[in-house]
Amino acid sequence: xxxxxxxxxxxxxxxxxxxxxxxxxxxxxxxxxxxxxxxxxxxxxxxxxxxxxxxxxxxxxxxxxxxxxxxxxxxxxxxxxxxxxxxxxxxxxxxxxxxxxxxxxxxxxxxxxxxxxxxxxxxxxxxxxxxxxxxxxxxxxxxxxxxxxxxxxxxxxxxxxxxxxxxxxxxxxxxxxxxxxxxxxxxxxxxxxxxxxxxxxxxxxxxxxxxxxxxxxxxxxxxxxxxxxxxxxxxxxxxxxxxxxxxxxxxxxxxxxxxxxxxxxxxxxxxxxxxxxxxxxxxxxxxxxxxxxxxxxxxxxxxxxxxxxxxxxxxxxxxxxxxxxxxxxxxxxxxxxxxxxxxxxxxxxxxxxxxxxxxxxxxxxxxxxxxxxxxxxxxxxxxxxxxxxxxxxxxxxx
Length: 398
Hints:
The protein is mostly helical. Helix content is 71%, strand content 0%. It contains 16 helices and no strands. Helix 3 crosses helix 8 and helix 4 crosses helix 15.
């Protein structure tokens, strides 16, 4: 007999929207810094190079927000969320804008002229990452979107396996955290032993499992604390000290800016350096997300600042910011006559950010929001199933 689930209030996490905005802006800055040739220029260059940590924030947030409904269902002994609806919502969230930006980059940028059908198909389907040719100009940042899509595909499968084990052994948050720790081990093994066997494999999903695992671990802890306020008291106490979390994250970020995390140039990193950088980024992103995931939503200075409408709105358009900014960077560099590695970085940064934010607002209103309105539209197979049951329901209502 399955115990009745506890009636828990639905949690909202307004601070996570603002963190998503910071992550998107960090990615913009690191790409502008690369174009301007800042990377080799002292600590400031190293720090801007390491702002690619914005991708780690995105992956941790995805692990938390997407893993949480599955984990909550397992915790309460309920059926897992429907995979069809989950996939439909994910597709609506990412595909329309990704297709638009891909078409624009392939058509507008001169570097992409003359690409054949194959590159067009692979880029439109986010599979170019798995081809030896590399990503085209204006789309090189979409490697992380391809990796995130792979996570979207694997997540339901992994959760079905986890749910099967949970039904046989009983739900245990410590067991769940142990399973997630195995993902970190798999990440390390992939990076040190396997990734070098295939071109581009250091950007495939196994190379970033630790980041998604940190997000899902935070979801496990948050759900358990929601049911039992005394659970994981140490983490909850730390979550209520955002200044401490950010100070610890800043200290780890300073370490990540040193050579222990690999070169900031285009030189390849060793397996050890890649693992070090990966785990440092996982810890930093986990510490930054922790106060918004486990701490109070409102009532403290920190939570109220992150819940500010302007910051949250930047979070709402952060996906557009991420997708559009590299195409804008190419066009802004042409506008300012700033070839790659030639400097003029501050003007390039200001121009890129300003144009990107404006275009992202438009894209959010014209592409993203209309697409997401379709999330409740039933697929044809669902409509036919509902139609088959309608007469019976009607007969009982009259």
